[in-house]
Hints:
- The protein is 34% helix and 18% strand.
- By secondary structure, it is α+β, with helices and mostly antiparallel strands.
- The strands form three sheets. The chain has a nine-stranded mixed sheet with strand order 3-2-1-4-5-7-10-11-12, with helices on both faces.
- The longest helix is centred in the last third of the chain and has 18 residues, at 270-287.
- The protein is elongated, with a radius of gyration of 34 Å.
- It starts with a helix and ends with a strand.
- The mean pLDDT is 90.
Amino acid sequence: MRRRRQMVHAVRMGDSMRSVAAAFGVSVGTVALWAARAQGQRLDRVDFADGKPGRAANRLPARMERRILRARALLRTSVLGEYGAQAIAGALAERHPNEPVPGRATIHRVLLRHGAIDSVHRQRRAPPPKGWYLPEVAQARAELDSCDFIEDLKIANGPLVSILTATSLHGALADAWAMTEPTAQHTLERLLQRWRQDGLPGYAQFDNDTVFQGTHRFADSIGRVIRLCLALGVTPVFAPPREPGFQNAIEGFNALWQAKVWQRHRVANLGHLDHISAAYISAHRTKTASRADAAPARQPVPKRFELDLHAPLRGSIIFIRRTTDSGSVNVLGRQFAVDPHWIRRLVRCEVDFTNHRVRFYALRRREPHDHPLLNETSYIRHDRPFKGKPQVFNER
Length: 396
């Protein structure tokens, strides 16, 4: 306040407002404001305190604010017990039909200003780390590749195509392949092509489509894609059905690919689409190169790798599932009892083919680093002949 008094005194002594503003390090508008505020008054009687003088011109009259507060107090003891902004507006319109009624937002601000709000606001919590349901991925000690299909895109005067997409959680290594027949065999070939180029991740995540998992008609059915993962030491992970969040990485890339490739270009044929998509993938990888460099290390595919679809299964499959009302889950066509006290909750089911065990771990987003073991049971799978020919994929 002393500086403001000195500024006004300098202006009254004949100094220009610009020179006073430069001397005190303020704007000319600030000097003009306090000079106008003190006009016609002795300096020792001017109020140089902060704050707007008087009441805002567009603020509700005090009489209307008191009326709103009285209406809320009466409605709170009513039979219905509804005393929010909408109920208050209705009561005011009924009691004073010839006067304008403030809007609900205005009524809410009046209640908030007078501390007449008793609702509980939603508590915001920090999101869990990436891949929180897999400890190795959450701690950035292993990479996770997510795969999905964009289905039934129609080329003008051409066929329906599906796009197999893939991206890594930490490194953002993206791929997209167009195909007219989204089969397990084609998916297997594209994944092997990707892993030969970029290296093997620790985990590969899919949805529960039969292309990835295998047929759902019979219990313990294991498809080609799973067998490829197990043969290479990659742990396949299957996201829970109708659960948001687990497929965010691949779904976000799917939306990006459609916006930047499919919707921007008029595709003449499948070859044209492959060319445009490959150019975009190359540019996307260049843009995200720093993320790929900082991502967990990936192991190379063994040279002269041979995939024998008839070989006994080794390794583990992970299913993220939600328990039923009885605390059980369905995995590979079988019903497993988990915990009668852990109902309608997320669990990580690890099917260990090497040791013939199934382990169930509790998952909670609020405690993303704590995965207690709920149950463990034996799992005996009788190896049935795979209905397909053994395949050999030699490195070229």
